[in-house]
Here is the input.
Amino acid sequence: MKPLANYPLTLIISAAIIVASLIPTREFPETDLELADKYAHTLMYFVLALTLWWEHSRKTTSAPSASFIILSVVLPASLGILLELAQTYLTTYRSGDYLDALANALGAIIALPIGLLLTYRRNRKKENHKTKQA
Here is the structure.
């Protein structure tokens, strides 16, 4: 994988998730939507993983390597697991939840096929553009 500096938006989103996960919060308002918290976790990590894919696809015309495909799920999921552990063991004002960690990983997993499709389509466009110019 290329240096992290090539993924500025991914880093910004990661930093925002870290801050949001570790700052003290008031109780969240009740909602009629069951598992709203889990949906929010899934969405955050879906956006994080998809941003990683988007930034990667902008910088390359080759198919993603197996290591990038694995890291595109493992890195966001690991961040989510580590933050849930940090909430449990490093704060007195937040509580970690294994279901939140699972929702985080699910968001990254859902982004995988979409990221692959995004990369495939972007690479096809780039190749078509090169062919037309030649």
